[in-house]
Amino acid sequence: MKLLIVESPNKIAKLKPLVGAGFRIAASFGHIRDLPMKGGMAIDFRDGRVLPHYEPLEKGARAIAELTSLAKVCDEVWLATDPDREGEAIAWHITQIIGEHRYKRVAFQAITAAAVKQALASPRDLDRHLVDAQQARRVLDRVVGWLVSPTLKGLGRDAKSAGRVQSVALRLVAERELEIRKFNAVDHFVLAAKLERDGSPPPFTARLVTWKGELLGTRLTDAEIAQRSVAWCRKQGWLVHACDRREVEKRAPPPFTTATVQQAASVQLGLRPDATMRLLQSLFEDGHITYHRTDSVALAPEAIDAARALIRTAFKPAYLPKSLIVHATKSANAQEAHEAIRPTHPESGADAVTGDAGDLYRLVWNRFIACQMSSGRDQLTTIDVACAPQAWNGGPMGIFQAKGVVVQFDGWRKLTADATEEKRRKKRTGKAKAGEDEPEDEDEDVALPLLEPGQALTLLDLLAQQKTTRPPPRFTQASLIKRLEKEGIGRPSTYAAIMGTLLARTYVTDEKRKLHATPLGLTVNGFLTRRYAGNFIELDYTRRMENELDSIARGETPWEPAVTNAAQGVLVLAREAGLDGPGLG
């Protein structure tokens, strides 16, 4: 008999018929051993070694007793914890508690008959590089939290928490808050001309962009001057200065990763990242999707074949590209053995899942099919109109510009839209919710006439439209995740926890889906950026540390020297901030 250990008990019923009668299946219920929550730092730094003092978790006592008992009566222990760094570490901790035994490591990328059969046919040893990478992250997080959090005491009783990544995320929100507070709105005027070429409808609207050869921007701030400009321009001649028409390709977006699915679920479904991750977990455990903690956009060949087969039967031939589409993973640290998040049985359709997870599954299904569909094609037209064509140095006094976009072929957009398209849809339909930002200066979804330079135009109307400059937008949870991912800070599987911590500590509030730094959050950020400048609070520093941690996972960097050096730097600054604590050996 073999003992197969998984993390979640919810997988057991699904796995039993897939693994056969030779296995007993039991769950660890996540981590069963960790650094203690109370007491000291529980880490020794001695002679270049890093010695974490792990303890069995109280909540894991029942699981430990069951796993230990079952291991005694089984010939082999197969470790089937989740297929990521955290899962590898959980498997290693299980071996440390159960003790000497015959272990095999298997990883299920999906809980389906084919995936389970493939995993059981190719067991391996534990990946110590992944284990070391998880230990390095855990130790550094403990060091920063244990050394830095006590230095916040003078800021008030609620200032209790600092973290290696959470504090950098707080910094982004806090600095955006300060930008908004310092922002001075400027009222200005935009001259908008409604024009038409005789016999060439439709009329179109162009806005003043240059005056006397210089970009105007927001400099027209005087209402009286704006109205005098309108009166003067009404008397001038108008003609086409330039007309550019080109076709652009809109490529299908890649399938979802952990970060992008959290962003899309927030924008399109209004789900918070923690809720998205819970639903993804249930979809994975029920066998509906592949593993959901992934940086990769790779797809198995059979998955691409399945998507193309569905496109072939459900859409006209133009929607199926002649050759398959391979999306390149941008993250240098992505685990290419993983796939992107995709449905395991796409042939069942987008509505195969009901209940709370149904909308999220449909989002994943649509994105997966769309990623193999033909590109869209848009026609972009830009018309520059000269007002008073020869009134300034032999050239036009003003240039008015109109931009338009017409969808020539929707392609993958027939099925779904990415987050950017969703924002444009809200703008077009007026369905943006109160407090949501609307993009400015976008091409209008209108057809513009095909004109030639030198053609005369008729001015139908000219108005001075009053506008007000707007401060930079507040982060949403989705846009903060996007920024963290862009900066290389944290990892997608941790983003939901980061958001939860900032909200739980009341450093940040979420109001109408906008993140606001609280007075407490601003105070904590101000202290950390002053006291820990050049260290973990810096974006560049944190990005470099993340890259080093990923280098550990690839087996390129030994973990103990890297962690020791980083920990020593934090200790020095913590002592300068008033910490009276022990050294690091």
Describe the structure.
- The chain has 585 residues and is of the alpha+beta class.
- The protein is 38% helix and 19% strand.
- The protein has 17 helices and 17 strands.
- The protein has helices spanning 12-19, 61-72, 85-98, 113-120, 128-148, 166-182, 223-234, 258-269, 273-285, 301-314, 358-370, 419-429, 477-487, 495-504, 519-531, 539-553, 559-576, and strands at residues 2-6, 23-27, 33-34, 43-46, 49-52, 55-56, 76-79, 103-105, 187-197, 200-211, 214-215, 238-250, 376-387, 398-409, 458-468, 508-511, 514-517.
- The strands form 5 sheets. Strands 9, 10, 11, 12, 13, 14 and 15 form a 7-stranded antiparallel beta sheet that branches.
- α3 (85-98) packs across α5 (128-148) and α6 (166-182) crosses α15.
- The two termini are 46 Å apart.
- The relative contact order is 0.15.
- The model is unreliable at 424-442 (pLDDT under 50).
Helical content class: 25-40%
Radius of gyration: 29 Å
Kindly report the average pLDDT value. Answer: 89
Specify the overall morphology: flat
Strand content: 15-25%
Helix-strand category: alpha+beta
Biggest sheet layout: 7 strands, antiparallel
Count of alpha/pi helices: 17
Number of strands: 17
Could you tell me how far the N terminus lies from the C terminus, measured between alpha carbons in angstroms?
A: 46 Å
| Uncertain residue segments | 424-442
Helix and strand layout, with pairings?
Layout: E1 2-6, H1 12-19, E2 23-27, E3 33-34, E4 43-46, E5 49-52, E6 55-56, H2 61-72, E7 76-79, H3 85-98, E8 103-105, H4 113-120, H5 128-148, H6 166-182, E9 187-197, E10 200-211, E11 214-215, H7 223-234, E12 238-250, H8 258-269, H9 273-285, H10 301-314, H11 358-370, E13 376-387, E14 398-409, H12 419-429, E15 458-468, H13 477-487, H14 495-504, E16 508-511, E17 514-517, H15 519-531, H16 539-553, H17 559-576
Parallel strand pairs: 1-2, 1-7, 7-8
Antiparallel strand pairs: 3-6, 4-5, 9-10, 9-15, 10-11, 10-14, 12-13, 13-14, 16-17
Helix pairs in contact: 3-5, 5-16, 5-17, 6-15, 8-11, 8-13
